[in-house]
Design goal:
The structure holds two protein chains of two kinds. Chain A is mostly helical. Chain A has two helices and no strands. The longest helix of chain A is centred in the middle third of the chain and has 30 residues. Chain B is α+β, with helices and mostly antiparallel strands. The longest helix of chain B has 52 residues. Classes of the chains: A mainly alpha, B alpha+beta.
Chain lengths: 53, 239
């Protein structure tokens, strides 16, 4: 899968490497800024207060 | 491509997806354990400034000549002092959820253990620090001043609350007064045990004649199937 993506990238190796880094950075940003802040709200085990049922 | 080659390619992709999932989950674990702490610590820095700027004594109490009687003037007896705009008093008493409310120190948890307690115990409030149950008493007031805090993640203020012992001090500073509580009891209970918030802690229906404090956090530390509760009673105040 990653090999396939690598082969789709255009240009010489240096440009491919740069594009690949940008892609990784984009995925990381999406995870850290959007996915994780949402995911942490649905993961149980964060409750510290007492409340009636 | 031969049949064997195709199978190999499919297995390869599945393998890469699993590796990717493993990396993403590891990254999420790091995010939960460490990054939430960074967020909380930056919120605490801002709250510290906010709290310090709020530390003018509550107008009603300040109007009294003797510091001794400031306890009894908590009921809002402003007749003998300078008249104050009631809305001002209210703003100081009950800030908006998530804003700075009091400064708490628990020497047992370390000399540097000092947190700004925020108003409210909603998820977003508690990300900024320990939070006061809005319906609970104010510090020093007759009744039960109750605070919830994270025991893991989000700066984990109450991480080691299980080390507290009967007789330990809990110091709460608010409106220029330091309220000194002493721990009377601690135990583990169910998440729905709201009696711990009663005016006389864990004795619902009994009318309070003293000022109490209650701390709640999750138990076990990295779970939330139970709650760790600490009760204390006010033993002194100084301006």
């Amino acid at each position: 899968m990653y090999a396939w993506i690598w082969h789709q990238l255009p240009g010489p190796t240096a440009l491919r490497a740069l594009t690949a880094l940008l892609l990784v950075a984009g995925v990381l940003a999406l995870l850290l800024l959007v996915v994780f802040p949402w995911a942490i709200t649905v993961v149980p085990g964060q409750e510290v207060s007492v409340e009636g049922t | 491509m031969s049949a064997g080659g195709r199978v190999r390619a499919v297995v390869g992709v599945i393998g890469e997806l699993f590796i990717t999932a493993g990396l993403v989950i590891s990254l999420f674990a790091l995010y939960v354990l460490f990054w939430t702490g960074v967020e909380t610590s930056s919120a605490q820095d801002a709250l510290e400034d906010e709290f310090d700027s709020l530390q003018e004594p509550v107008p009603v109490a300040a109007a009294d000549d003797s510091g001794e009687s400031s306890e009894s003037s908590e009921s809002g007896d402003s007749a003998e002092g300078t008249p104050v705009d009631p809305s001002d008093v209210e703003a100081v008493s009950d800030p908006l959820p998530g804003s700075a409310y009091a400064r708490m120190r628990i020497p047992r948890l370390g000399e540097s253990w000092e947190w700004i307690v925020v108003q409210g115990v909603d998820m977003l409030d508690l990300r900024r620090g320990p939070g006061r149950y809005i319906e609970s008493a104010h510090p020093g007031e007759i009744g039960n001043f109750a605070v919830a805090g994270h025991r893991a993640t989000y700066g984990e203020p109450f991480a080691y609350l299980d080390r507290i012992r009967v007789g330990d001090e809990i110091l709460v500073e608010r409106a220029g007064v330091e309220h000194r509580y002493v721990v009377t009891d601690w135990f583990i209970t169910t998440p729905d045990d709201v009696d711990v918030l009663a005016p006389v802690p864990s004795q619902p229906g009994v009318e309070a004649t003293e000022a109490f404090i209650t701390l709640t956090t999750c138990h076990p530390r990295f779970g939330s199937t139970e709650r760790l509760i600490v009760h204390g009673v006010l033993v002194g105040e100084e301006a």
